[in-house]
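Dear support,

I submitted the protein below through the web form. The confirmation email said the job was done, but the results page showed an empty box. After a refresh the structure appeared. I'm attaching both so you can tell me whether what I see now is the final result or a partial one.
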Amino acid sequence: PEIKIAREIVPTGEGYESELMCTVTGQRKPEVKWYKDEETRKPVMSSQRVKLERSGHNHILRLLKTQKEDFGDYICEAKNAEGSTEAIIRLTGRPSRPVLESAVAEGGTKSPVLTYKVESYAPIEEYELLYKKQETGEWISLRPAVTSSPEGRIFTVKHTLTDTVPGVYVAQIKAKNSYGWSEFSSLSTFPREHADDLIETEQLASSINDEKSDASASELRISVALVASLLLAHFYC
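What the results page shows now:
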């Protein structure tokens, strides 16, 4: 049989409903069982608070009013006459792995602005952002400001790298709540451009506007002279 999982790490919180799902396919109908923790492999049984459900090929483990002791690794095992396969899903109170939303240059200095999204059921307490020039090996550590989340469980962290020089950079970030640190985000690569590029663009735009203004003034002077000539011709006639 074959097992696919949508999320290897599922963030949740105490008192919330949690859902773990694995999709199982196979030529012969597999039997699916859930276990908790790789070492003990304690079978997960259905109860008033724990629901084992199935929808087509999707097998769902649903925890109502999640408790702290529910956190941990869950094994989805599929077995038939051809063999067995398993996948591991981690249920955690820690923040999800941050995801880069954008990396853009803002302002006249062309400083990179990095924006990440992270999911957390508990308030975010701290971030750690690491960045470096791509060709060097020394990471620089920063602590971006923590802001409240107007989007419920989705937190946004935005930070401007002001002390960079032109070149290509890589960065990664992690988040912390009362349950601990998340994993670092995937490495993101972004350029830090020359500020002169922006200045030259602005100067070119200004030059074009000046040329347009001069052209408009010349057209106005020609129009006034033409009207004056017509009036004089009419007067003498």
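Response: this is the final, complete result; the empty box was a page-load delay. The helical segments are 195-236.
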